[in-house]
Write a structure and sequence with these properties.
Rossmann fold, alpha/beta, five-stranded parallel sheet, binds 5-phosphoarabinonic acid, 447 residues, 2 domains, five-stranded mixed sheet, globular
């Protein structure tokens, strides 16, 4: 297989203060080794993987015995599955698909849930409830309603149609699993949702869809191996692309670039943009620092948000994802009107490459510092490499910024307020705040 390449030519590495970040390599390599040894970075060392692959193999015929998988999860418990689905199981979006089907319930949309309840053949549906904490209300509320319907339809055997992916010891789902004899797969300790795509969280749905999940793991393990090694030195770190990417990003932020475009010119990988956006935003948006990730896909977004990228505020860096070996597609041979004669004799697939090149050059010409990540293939193995690269980059960027990239304290406030609004016990302070907030006379305008 040809190698993946990172092209730094248009990154402005000489104009940005990247080199000063290299000075942190020794401290960061020591910290990384220490945290790997303490089990704090399982996305990198994957100590759980052998057992998980064994468990997945054991579950394969049971899981694939269902026609539908309904995955209930939100945030990091759903975005990876959707990215894998769109990248490697495009069959479901193609005409005349006859199954299997993966549905992802990652919102609180009464209408969508109603359609699942009414239209899914429940006896042929495996409900995969994915929640590390086992208590996320958006996920649990869907579970409770589907469980009720499943019980009505399936009687005593309803629990056969559920599989939980959750913490080994704690949380409501773990209690339910123990009490109701529901099969489970574990989310390892210290593996937060946005770093969990290569655990049961992403690999269970991948296996259901027939995606080569072992290659995803191999790709990621390969790129992360030198970082996971106890011999990680500052020299090794400095050579690792994730560290250089992190230094580039930290330098960008310091220079006022507070937005980061993730522009995919691999159309079927568009949802990796949402996966990356969550990884980046939830990990790095802290203490007034960070850069807002903006997922975009070529060529579609050339006709929507690209104008802003090119001529809006000059505050954007760009990760630009390409792959030279995408499907060639049909050839334009005859019946080409004169005004389009430039595509005669070309394959449809050539358009995306030409448009990618055009956009990349235009971004550069408009002062957008850009790093191109050229994937050798749009395969599972290459995707695994990309995910490993970006997860490590995120950790290093956070450390260079002086923030904690594995927590997300700010999002808790909204969750507590919503619970208080729904009448959850305790939360008196939030209830008082709600009362005060709601008692303010609103300034409203009819339109
Ligand atoms: O990345 C994260 O940690 C979050 O987005 C979580 O994945 C999300 O909040 C869902 O949490 P849980 O898996 O505990 O239901």
């Amino acid at each position: 297989m040809a190698s993946n390449i990172i092209d730094w030519t248009d990154s402005w590495q000489d104009k940005l203060d990247i080199k000063s970040k290299y000075e942190s390599a020794e401290a960061i390599s020591d910290r990384f080794s220490k945290e790997v040894a303490e089990g704090k970075l399982p996305f990198c060392s994957m100590p759980y993987m052998a057992e998980l692959l064994y468990d997945l193999e054991g579950l394969e015929s049971y899981v694939k015995g269902f026609e539908h998988m309904l995955l209930l999860g939100i945030g990091g418990s759903a975005l990876g599955a959707r990215a894998l689905q769109k990248a490697f199981f495009s069959a479901q979006d193609e005409p005349c698909h006859e199954g299997p089907w993966l549905w992802i319930g990652d919102n609180v949309c009464a209408k969508t849930l109603e359609s699942y309840l009414e239209k899914l053949p429940l006896e042929k549906t495996l409900v995969a409830v994915v929640s590390k904490s086992g208590g996320t209300i958006e996920t649990i509320s869907q579970y409770l309603l589907i469980r009720k319907k499943m019980k009505q339809n399936m009687g005593d055997k309803w629990n056969r149609n559920f599989l939980f992916v959750t913490d080994k010891n704690n949380g409501f789902l773990r209690e339910q699993a123990d009490e109701l004899s529901i099969k489970t797969l574990e989310v390892p300790d210290n593996l937060g949702g946005r770093y969990s795509i290569l655990s049961a969280v992403g690999l269970l749905p991948a296996m259901f869809m027939g995606i080569d999940y072992r290659s995803l793991v191999e790709g990621a393990s390969d790129i992360l191996a030198s970082l996971a090694s106890q011999e990680l030195s500052s020299e090794t770190l400095l050579k690792h692309p994730s560290y250089k990417l992190a230094c580039w990003n930290a330098a960008l932020m310091e220079s006022g670039y507070n937005e980061l475009i993730f522009f995919s010119y691999i159309p079927q990988w568009a949802c990796f943009g949402q996966w990356f956006a969550q990884l980046w935003a939830e990990s790095l948006g802290k203490e007034g620092k960070g850069s807002q990730p903006i997922p975009a896909v070529g060529a579609t977004d050339q006709h929507s948000v690209n104008q802003m990228f090119l001529d809006g505020p000059r505050n954007k860096g760009c990760l630009f994802l390409t792959c030279d070996s995408l499907t060639d597609g049909e050839k334009f041979v005859e019946d080409i009107p004169d005004k389009f004669s430039y595509i005669k004799g070309k394959n449809f697939g050539e358009l995306i490459h030409a448009e990618g090149l055009g956009t990349k050059m235009a971004l550069s010409a408009n002062s957008v510092p850009l790093v191109e990540i050229k994937m050798a293939e749009s395969s599972e193995e290459c995707a695994g490499r990309m995910m490993g690269l970006l997860m490590a980059t995120t950790i290093f960027t956070g450390w260079l910024m002086g923030i904690n990239p594995v927590d997300q304290p700010a999002v808790e406030l909204g969750k507590r307020l919503a619970k208080a609004r729904l009448g959850a016990e305790g939360l008196q302070e939030e209830k008082n705040d709600l009362e005060a907030f709601l008692s303010v006379k609103r300034e409203e305008q009819v339109f």
